[in-house]
Every structure is written in structure tokens, then in C-alpha cells.
């Protein structure tokens, strides 16, 4: 060990880890070892995975083209409607979708061509500056450990320029960021947040610890097995490494197992990552099963927001409800670690992106529609000044179907809220739960609302409160435990630094608001 200190660290890690990395990547690509074979669902092959890695850029390029085409088609169709102010967007998106794609999703798919529709999920791909996007992608290629799915998110990627307070420069100390990043972040440098989806947690951390030991806290000395157990068994299943410099840019990246990500997106067991994907993100590497799960996540967010709204509302109100879901019960909001106006700023500054995410899904639901003459304009989808009016049918049968189609783990919490409220006996409640299961010995069942769902939906004000309470119960514990876990994964110094800067930011925002209020009085 003493000799190691006299060796240049960069050279030492390069020499000592080269054989391990080489053998690991051979195992990953060749598929001759059991570890590799576990990566694929039935019917897939090493060649399929190789092709998937090579064609990440091509897949997103096709997504962007299709999204642009769908957007144009949607605008054209809206312009052609003259007899009514109601509008169902992206009709072409819905015409070829199988009717039961939500009830029995195929999680064994390995290619994008196996998705329910050739343009399925293209609404998830946001368009950003090409040079900035390339800078983000270049950061991914600095990691030797294989990343199957990745997205960048937050104020470092999408503008929240309506922030009501200053951003402390210490939060974003880019040492020497590429020009594309400094140009994109016109309001001042901001940390760029990433989520990496990986197939095998321990394998990934083993490779990454060898390449970047400085990214990890003291846990790296205990080995990748301990690191992976901390990731998978504590909090929401995400392992964050903050204050990391890649290509001269300060980033924070979280690592999550793909199974954990898909489960949260489809069942809402924690809403930790599902909530982040309710808002616009930049997907840098895509995966067909994650795209399928995220489409379920988005349409679930739309239904949940509708249950919290009345018969008439605006787009801005709808998207604000959706964006607020992941912040209900978040300790950062409770302890003023975030701007209290953050949700409003996110929506108002990204309104066209929210339209891209949700307008195709509005066209899928039979009980909601646009009711605004401005939707006839060809350019309304891209007009941030347009806040179109909307209406939903409050019929308990249709709203009961929405309750029944909520994600399974979240729906169970909502049912428990009403069991306590209506004091339903245990045996009766167990019988109702058995009837509402998504599948039985015969397979998946068509999810249509029963009497219990309709009774819930019939409480226009009561269901709103129950949904909010269920969201808080879903979000609170994973968010708290994930925050506590951050002290172990980031290390005490970086953990306290992160908390301190969040508190400092919140305090600066509160002082700025008080100053503005005082100025108005004078």
C-alpha cells in the first residue's frame, strides 16, 4: 500500500483496472457469461443489444422527426375544425393504438418496433439546442460502465427563469464548461442533473468505482456489493453522486436499476422518479420498456390531476397540478429548501413542452377535451402565451374508470383512505380488493371502474383531498429516506454542503420576496 502512494493515481487506476474493465465489457457484449444472459428478456440476443447501443442517436433522431410530424399534424387538424370549439389533439397518435395497451403491457419487448405504435412515446422526446444536447451526450460517453437509459433534467437543462430569487453562484461552479453549456444556461451556470438507468447495479458500480473512485464516499471501501445494497434497499432505489465534474461541467448523477425505474413508473410505489418524469426531461438514451412504462406514468399523472380538478379549468391549471404531484410531501418544500414558486415557474416557462407531453394523451381520454377557439390556431401548440380552456365530464362512471386505472400501488393507498373514511369492515374491504385486482388466474382483466370506484369518484371535493393525502403518503417516506441516505452516499461534507446550499437558496428567495413586498407597500 505504501508503494501505491508514489504512483500517479491516473496511471495507477488505468493499469490496475484495465484487465477488469476489458473482461467486464467482453462479458457484457459477448454474452457468453451468465451475467450477460440475465440482461435480456426472452427472445433477445447480444446482437440486439449491440444494435440498441449503436442506434441510440438514430432512435432519438427518428423520435424527434416523428414528434415534429405529429405536432404538425395536430396543428393542421386543429386548424381544420371550424364548427366547434372543442378539440381533440393528435388524432393520428390514437388511431392505430391497440385498445388494451394499458391493461396488459408487454414488458418482454427488446426493440422500439415492438411498441404498441410506430410513433408510441415520441411525445417524451423534448427538442433542445443541438450543441447543448451533444455536450450532454459527450458526458455520458465518459463513463465506461454501460448506461442503458439516461435523461437530464432540472433547471440546468430547462429554463425556470421566472425564479423569484437569485441563484447562489456556489451552487454551480462549472470549472470550465463547454461553450454550448454556458450559452444555454443564460441565467447563470447551474448544476446539470442526470439519471442513469442500468441493468445490473453491482456490476455497474464495480466498473464505475474503478474508473471514478473519487465520485464515491467512504462506501467505496466496502465494495460494490455494499454500494449496490445501499442503492437498492434504502430510500427510493437511487444512488446519487453530487458535485462531480465531467468535461469541465459540474453535474449530479443518480443511478437506478431499470427494474426499479419501470416499477415506479408503472405502479407509483414511491413516485420518486415517476414524479420527475411527469415534467419535461431530455432523454439522452432510450429503452423501449422504459418508454412504455413512462407512457403509463404520464397518462396516470393526467388522470390524477383530473381527479383534483373541477369541470372547467385551463391548461396552466392542469399542468400545474401534474407538476405539483412529486412535490407533495417532499421535505425540501416543507423546510424551504426550494423556491415556493418553483412549480409555477416550471410550468409557465415550459408550457409548450408540457403540451408536447400531454396533448396526445388528452386525445386518448374520453372524458376531457379542449374548449377554446384558440386551439384552432396552427401555432397554438408552440405558443407559450396561449392558456387554453378545457372541460371534463364529471360523470361518476367515467371518473370511476379513471380511479380504477390509477397505478396499482397508488390506487391501493387511495382505497385505504376511503376504507378509513367510510369505516369499511376488513372482510368486505378484502373482498373489494380481490375484485379490483388487475389480474387473476385467467390473466389480465380489463380495468373498468366498479361500484367502489364510482362511489369514490362521485365525491367531487372528497376525492381531491383523498388523492392529495395518498400522494403525500406515497412521496413522504421515500423522499425523507432518500435525503438521509444522501449523507452516506455523498459523504458527510458533500451532504451537508448540499443541504446548506438548499437552505441558503431558500432563505435568499424568502428575503427577496420580503423585499419586493416591502417595496410594493412603500
List the defining traits of the structure above.
single chain; 522 residues; alpha+beta; five-stranded mixed sheet; four-stranded antiparallel sheet; 52% helix; 10% strand; globular; disordered N terminus
Structural account:
- The protein is an alpha+beta fold.
- The chain has one domain (112-490).
- 52% of the residues lie in helices and 10% in strands.
- The strands form three sheets. Strands 4-5-3-2-6 form a five-stranded mixed sheet.
- Helix 8 packs across helix 9, helix 13 crosses helix 15 (342-349) and helix 18 (408-422) crosses helix 21.
- Residues 1-55, 70-96 and 163-171 have low confidence and may be disordered.
- Its EC number is 2.7.7.41.
- Its cofactor is Mg(2+).
- One of its GO terms (cellular component) is mitochondrial inner membrane.
Strand order of the largest sheet: 4-5-3-2-6
Unreliable spans are: 1-55, 70-96, 163-171
Strand content: 5-15%
Shape: globular
The number of helical segments is 22
For the record, the count of structural domains works out to 1
Helix/strand structural class: alpha+beta
**Radius of gyration in whole Å, from Cα?**
24 Å
Sheet with most strands: 5 strands, mixed
Cα separation of the termini: 68 Å
Keywords: Lipid biosynthesis, Lipid metabolism, Magnesium, Membrane, Mitochondrion, Mitochondrion inner membrane, Nucleotidyltransferase, Phospholipid biosynthesis, Phospholipid metabolism, Transferase
Enzyme class: transferase
Family: Belongs to the TAM41 family.
Pathway: Lipid metabolism; Phospholipid metabolism; CDP-diacylglycerol biosynthesis; CDP-diacylglycerol from sn-glycerol 3-phosphate: step 3/3
Amino acid at each position: 500500500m505504501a508503494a501505491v502512494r508514489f504512483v500517479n493515481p491516473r496511471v495507477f487506476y488505468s493499469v490496475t483496472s484495465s484487465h477488469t474493465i476489458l473482461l467486464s465489457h467482453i462479458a457484457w457484449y459477448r454474452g457468453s457469461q451468465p451475467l450477460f444472459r440475465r440482461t435480456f428478456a426472452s427472445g433477445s440476443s447480444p446482437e440486439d443489444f449491440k444494435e440498441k447501443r449503436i442506434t441510440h442517436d438514430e432512435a432519438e433522431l427518428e423520435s424527434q422527426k416523428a414528434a415534429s410530424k405529429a405536432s404538425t399534424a395536430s396543428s393542421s387538424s386543429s386548424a381544420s375544425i371550424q364548427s366547434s370549439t372543442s378539440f381533440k389533439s393528435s388524432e393520428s397518435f390514437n388511431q392505430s393504438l391497440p385498445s388494451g395497451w394499458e391493461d396488459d403491457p408487454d414488458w418482454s419487448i427488446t426493440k422500439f418496433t415492438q411498441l404498441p405504435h410506430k410513433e408510441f412515446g415520441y411525445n417524451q422526446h423534448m427538442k433542445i439546442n443541438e450543441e447543448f444536447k451533444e455536450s450532454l451526450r459527450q458526458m455520458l460517453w465518459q463513463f465506461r460502465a454501460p448506461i442503458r437509459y439516461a435523461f437530464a433534467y432540472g433547471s440546468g437543462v430547462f429554463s425556470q427563469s421566472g425564479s423569484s430569487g437569485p441563484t447562489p453562484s456556489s451552487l454551480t461552479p462549472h470549472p470550465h464548461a463547454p461553450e454550448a453549456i454556458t450559452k444555454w444556461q443564460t441565467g447563470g451556470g447551474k448544476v446539470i442533473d442526470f439519471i442513469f438507468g442500468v441493468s445490473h447495479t453491482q456490476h455497474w458500480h464495480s466498473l464505475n468505482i474503478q474508473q471514478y473512485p473519487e465520485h464515491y464516499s467512504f462506501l467505496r471501501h466496502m465494495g460494490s456489493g455494499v454500494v449496490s445494497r445501499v442503492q437498492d434497499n434504502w430510500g427510493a432505489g437511487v444512488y446519487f453522486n453530487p458535485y462531480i465534474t465531467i468535461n469541465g461541467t459540474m453535474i449530479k448523477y443518480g443511478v437506478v436499476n431499470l427494474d426499479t425505474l419501470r416499477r415506479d413508473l408503472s405502479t407509483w410505489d414511491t413516485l420518486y422518479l415517476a414524479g420527475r418524469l411527469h415534467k419535461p426531461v431530455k432523454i439522452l438514451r432510450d429503452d423501449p420498456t422504459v418508454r412504455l412504462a413512462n407512457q403509463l406514468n404520464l397518462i396516470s399523472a393526467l388522470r390524477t390531476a383530473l381527479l383534483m380538478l373541477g369541470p372547467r379549468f385551463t391548461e396552466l391549471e392542469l399542468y400545474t397540478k401534474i407538476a405539483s404531484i412529486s412535490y407533495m410531501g417532499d421535505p425540501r418544500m416543507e423546510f424551504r429548501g426550494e423556491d415556493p414558486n418553483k412549480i409555477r415557474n416550471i410550468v409557465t416557462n415550459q408550457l409548450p413542452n408540457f403540451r408536447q407531453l400531454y396533448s396526445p394523451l388528452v386525445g386518448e381520454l374520453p372524458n376531457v377535451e379542449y374548449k377554446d377557439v384558440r386551439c384552432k390556431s396552427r401555432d397554438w401548440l408552440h405558443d407559450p402565451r396561449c392558456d387554453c380552456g378545457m372541460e371534463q365530464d364529471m360523470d361518476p362512471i367515467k371518473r370511476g374508470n379513471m380511479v380504477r386505472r390509477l397505478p396499482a400501488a397508488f390506487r391501493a393507498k387511495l382505497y385505504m383512505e376511503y376504507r378509513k373514511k367510510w369505516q369499511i369492515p376488513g372482510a368486505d374491504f378484502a373482498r373489494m380488493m380481490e375484485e379490483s385486482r388487475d389480474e387473476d388466474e385467467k390473466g389480465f382483466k380489463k380495468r373498468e371502474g366498479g361500484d367502489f370506484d364510482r362511489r369514490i369518484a362521485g365525491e367531487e371535493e372528497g376525492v381531491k383531498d383523498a388523492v392529495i393525502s395518498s400522494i403525500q403518503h406515497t412521496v413522504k417516506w421515500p423522499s425523507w429516506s432518500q435525503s438521509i441516505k444522501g449523507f452516506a452516499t455523498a459523504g458527510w461534507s458533500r451532504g451537508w454542503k448540499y443541504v446548506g446550499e438548499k437552505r441558503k437558496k431558500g432563505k435568499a428567495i424568502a428575503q427577496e420576496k420580503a423585499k419586493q413586498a416591502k417595496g410594493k407597500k412603500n
